[in-house]
Amino acid sequence: MASIPFEHALLLASVLFALGLVALLIRRNLIVMLMSVEIMLNAAGLAFIAAGSRWGQPDGQVMFLLVLTLAAAEVGVGLGLVLQIYRRYKTLDVDRLSEMQG
Amino acid sequence: MELTLFYLSALVAIAATFMVVIQCNTVHALLYLIVSLLASGFIFYLLGAFFAAVLEVIIYAGAIIVLFVFVVMMLNLGSKTIEQEKQWLCPGIWHGPAALCAILFAELLVTLMRSGAHEAGRIVESKTLGIALFGPYLLAVETASMLLLAGLVGAYHLGRPLRSGS
Amino acid sequence: MLNLLWLVPFMPLAGFLILTASEGRLPRAYVPWIGAGSVGLSAALAASLAFELLALAPEARVFRQTLWHWMAAGDFGVDFAFYLDALSLNMLLVVTGVGFLIHVYSAGYMADDPSMARFFAYMNLFVFAMLILVLADNLPLLYLGWEGVGLCSYLLIGFWYEKPENGYAARKAFVVTRVGDTAMALGLFLMFSQLGTLDIQEAMARASTQWPAGSALPTAAALLLLGGAVGKSAQLPLQVWLPDAMAGPTPISALIHAATMVTAGVYLIARTHALFALAPEVQTLVAAIGAITLLMSGFSALTQTDIKRILAYSTISQIGYMFLALGVGAWSAAIFHLTTHAFFKALLFLGAGAVILSLHHEQDIFRMGGLRRSLPLVFWTFIVGLAALVALPFTSGYYSKHEILLSAYGSGAAGPWLWAAGTAGAILTGLYSTRLLLVAFFGTERTQAHSHYGSNIGVPLVVLAILSLAGGLAKLPLFPALPETGTEETGGSIGLATTAAPFLGVAIGYLVYRTGTASAEALLQLPGAETLRRLWFSGWGMDWVYDRLFVFPFIALARLNKGDAVDRLYQGIVALTRLGHCMLVPTQTGQLRRYAAGMLFGAALILALGVWS
C-alpha cells in the first residue's frame, strides 16, 4: 500500500471529532446527539487505526475494536433510554429534560 | 493513486459529517452518517487495517445505524419535528459551541503539527490482530464482552413498555 | 489493748454507716444515741489507750498498726496503717473528746431539725476522716483523711442547703481549700519521686539524711506542704473561706471550723517538722504568715457584728499563733495551743450556739444585750472561754500563748518583731473579746431570750469550761514525737509585758464599750476611720481582690466559652462548605448540553496547558 501522510489521517480524525462535538452542542434532538457521539467515537477509532498503521502494530486495531464494542453498548443503552424518555415526556428536546437541576 | 483516494474519501467523510450536523431531518441525517462511516471504513482499508474496515462497515454502518433507523421509525417523528428542528437550529446558537470547538480543534492542530511528518499505511495482517486480541489483550476482550452483555441487559430493561400507572 | 487502736476511727465509721443506711427509718430518739454514742466509745477507748501509752517509757511511746495492704503498684505500696505516738495521741484525745462533747451538744441543738440523722451521719463521717488524718502512718492515708474532712466540711457548711448562700459558702470553702490541697498533692508527688517512700517516719528520716539543710528540694517540698496547711487552716492567703463557713450549724463551726479540722494544717506541719527544719526559709515564712494573719484577722474581728463571724476571725487569729509557734520551732507549744484552743473555742462556739438558739437564730451582737441575766450559765461559761481566749493568767490559753510568745521572742533576729506582732495580737484579742462580752451580755436587753436548752447543751458547756480553765495543767508530754524546745529564760520585763498585753486590751475595751470614755461612735468620726472599718469588716478586702483576680476572669472565660468558642472553628468549616455548595448549586442546571459544554471547556483548558507549557 502506498504511504499516506500520518498527520493527514490524524487531521481527518480531528476534523470529524470537532464536527461531532459541534453537533453534540448545537442539536437538541436526543437521537441526533447520540449520533454525534457516534461520530466522535468513530473519529477516535480512526486515530487509533492511523496510529496502528503508522507503526505497523495490531494494537491500534485492537483499540478500535474496543471502541466499537463501547459504541455498540452505548447505542443499545442510549436508544433504550431515548425510547423511555419519549414515552414519558413525549419529546426528544434535551433542554426540557432538566429535572435534575440543583 | 491511494493518496488521491484517501483525500477523496476524507473529503466525502467530512462533507457527510457536516451534513449530519446541519440536517434537520433525522432520517436524512442518519443516511449522511452512513455515508460518513462508509468513507471512514474505506480510509481504514487504505491505511492497511482491513479487518477494522470490514468491522466498520458491518457493525457501525450496519448494525448500529440500523438500530438508529429502527428507533426513528418506532418514534415516528413526522414533519412537525422537522419544523421544530429548523427552529432550534437558528443561526444564533452556533456561535458559542462553534467557537469552543474551534479552539479545541486549533489546539489539536498545534499538537499535530509538532509531531513532524510521518508515513502511515503499513499493512497489519488479520492474523497478527487475532493473536494480539487473544494474547495480551485477552482480558480487555473479556471485559468488552461483559460490557456488551451489560449493554444488552440494560437495553432490554430500558426498552420494556411502561407499566400502567407509572 | 493498744491493738484496739483501729476501733477508734472505725467506731464513728460504723455510726455513719448505720445512720446512712437507716436514714428515715430509724426512730428519731435513737439517732443522737448512735451519733454521739459511737464517738463517745471512741473517746473512752482513746482515753484508755492514752493511759496505756503514757505508762511506757518516753522513747517507747510509739505504736504502729497495719490493718491491710491498701494499694500496690510496682515499687509503690501503701498500707492502711495507723501510727500512734504522743503527737497523734494528743490529737486523738482532742478530736474524740471535744468531738464527743460537741456531739452531745448537737443532740440538743439539732433536736428540732428534720434531717437530724443526716447531720449526725456527716458528723460521724467527719470524726472518722479526722481520726484517719491524725492516725495515718503514711502520707496517702493522711491525704485520704485530709480530703475526707474537706468533704465533710463542705457537706456540713451546706447542711441547710435550701438557702442558696449556704451552698455558696460550702462551695467557696471547698474550692479555696482545694487550692491548698493541690499544692499538698504536688508536695507528696515530689517527696515520693525524690525520697522513694511515702511513709511519714521513713520519709522524714530519709529527708534528714539525703537532703542538705536549706537546699532547694526540702524548701520546695515544705513550701508545697505549707500550701496545703494554709488552705486547711485558713491562713493567709487562703483564709477567705472560714468566715463564710459559719453558714453551717453552730456545732459544726465548733467542731470543724474551730476545734479540729482547721488545725489539721498545724498538725501536718508538726508531723513533718523534720522537713520544715531542713528549710529554714520556709519556716520563717510560716512564722511570718502566722504573725500577719493573727494581726489581720484580729483587726477584722474588731469590726464584725455577727457573733459567729467574730469567733471565726478569732479562730483564724489563734491558728495564726500556732503557725507563729511552728515557724519559730516551738513545736510542742503549737500543739499545746492547738489543744487549749480546741477547748476554749469549742466552748465559745457552743455558748454562741446556745445564745443563737435562745434568741431564735439572732446572730447580730448589737441586737442581743443583757443576756447576763437571762442566760446565766451561758454567761459564766462564756466568760471562762473568753478569759482563756484572751489568755488571762491561770487559764489554759495563758499557758499556751505565753509559751508561744516567749519562744517567738527568743527565736533569733526576727524574734522580737514576731513577739511584738503576737503581743499586739493579744491586745487585739482582749479588745474584741471585751467588746463581744460587753455588747452581747451586758446593757439593755434588745431581744427577748428564751432559755429552753436542756442538760445536753448545759453539760458540754460546763465540761468545756472546766477544761478551758484547767487544760493548761494537763499538758501531754510530746517528746520524743516532737523535739524539745527549751524556752530559754527571757528577761522578766518581756514576760511581764506578755502577760500584761491582754489586760491592756481588756481595759481599752472596757473604756470604749462600757464607760463610754471613748465610744465606738466617736472613734468612727475620726478621719479615715470609716474606710478602715469597712476594710476590716470585709476581711481586708481579700474577697474583693480574689473576685477581681480569679473569679471574674474565670466567669468571663466561662461566659466566653458558653457559646463553645472552639466549636466556632468547626462550624466555620461547615459554613465554608455550605457556602461553596451554595455557590456551585446554580451550575447544576440539569441542562445536558451545558454539561457537555463544560466538559469541552475543561478539555480545551487542559489541552491548552499541554500546548503552551
The tally of beta strands of chain C, per DSSP, is 2
Distance between the termini of chain A: 56 Å
Any idea what the shape of chain A is?
elongated
The name CATH uses for the topology of the domain at 29-89 in chain A is Helix Hairpins
Mean pLDDT of chain C: 87
SS field, number of helical segments of chain A = 3
Give the proportion of residues in helices of chain A: over 70%
Beta-strand level of the residues of chain C, as a percent range?
under 5%
Report the largest inter-chain contact.
A-B, 74 and 91 residues
Q: Classify the secondary structure makeup of chain A into a structural class.
A: mainly alpha
CATH architecture of the domain at 29-89 in chain A: Orthogonal Bundle
**Class from helix and strand fractions of chain C:** mainly alpha
Choose one word for the global shape of chain C.
globular
Strand content of chain A: under 5%
> Unreliable segments of chain C (pLDDT under 50, ≥5 consecutive)?
none
Give the proportion of residues in helices of chain C. over 70%
Would you list the SSEs of chain C in sequence order as H and E? HHEEHHHHHHHHHHHHHHHHHHHHHHHH
- Summarize model confidence as the mean pLDDT of chain A: 87
Biggest sheet descriptor of chain A: none
